[in-house]
Amino acid sequence: MIALDAKSRETMAANLDSNIENNNDNMEKCYENYILIDVGANLTNKKYSRDLDSVIQRAKDSGVQKIMVTGTSVKGSKEALRLTRIYPGTLYSTAGIHPHDAKSYTDESWTELKMLAQNPECVAVGECGLDYNRNFSEPEEQRKVFRKHIELAIELKKPLFVHERDAHEDLLAILNEFKGKLPSVLVHCFTGSCENALSYLNNGFYIGLTGYLCKDKSDTGVRKLLVDGTIPLDKLVVETDAPFMYPNTRASKLPTHVKDGLTERSMTFLHRYCTFQRNEPCSLPAIVEMVAAFMNKKPEEVALSTSFNAMKLFGLS
Ligand SMILES: [Zn+2]
Description:
Elements: H1 6-30, E1 36-41, H2 52-62, E2 64-69, H3 74-86, E3 91-95, H4 107-117, E4 122-131, H5 139-156, E5 160-165, H6 168-176, E6 185-187, H7 194-202, E7 206-209, H8 222-227, E8 236-238, H9 256-260, H10 264-273, H11 284-295, H12 299-314
Parallel strand pairs: 1-2, 2-3, 3-4, 4-5, 5-6, 6-7, 7-8
The structure holds zinc ion.
Residues 127, 163, 188-189 line the site of zinc ion (ZN).
């Protein structure tokens, strides 16, 4: 036994501490995060009004480095833009009027939306499009307002962030009116059939996938799209559509190999912070792992590709 003087003991203790710290660092590196981009989260929703800081911090901790805040009305687009100024480099916004809200269109509000869309933090025009599923606005009104968005996107040379529900043919027909002039197009939160996806892809459009993956019970929908390899990795982006589209990884119809692909880390974020009532961007790693499992690819590969696509598509720095 060697008697140590106080100084040596201190040095040893300090070395030990720093060893433990290094080990922890290494452990953390082992579990190193994906780098992900959530291209659609409704962070202006009042469900986040009390703890947005924590929501964004959790997203970052889970690996979501950048989030695009969806603008679905003039007021919402203004608020989304305001958030980008509070979290520069992390949040980006879109400016648009959701088809549900097409009836709210006025010439004055459109002038305001145009101004919002011109800001550099606003990286896409939308969300816009057609939703014949619920027809909260008259289809005729929806088509008119959608055309306005397309013209604006062309004018500003910004990508279009498109929403479509039960309106595939009309949506495609309207977009085709502008063929040759169209900017990049993202069909966000895709929930349609393989056939629909294929015709979007044939037009060079990007497809955005969400936790809807867990809900899809059809034989011809989103899951098949991934299993068959119909959707190439270079046209895919991922999004949470938070607070909606909670990815229910406990869904009984989810194949075993997909459930097995979920890591403890992503499940911790999902189960600790997200619910059916309030999904959060930190659920994105779980979505990416499921997408990867369905595609029979590594989640790291899906993470890398989708982030690269999002950066390229929306010009994120
Ligand atoms: Zn939508």
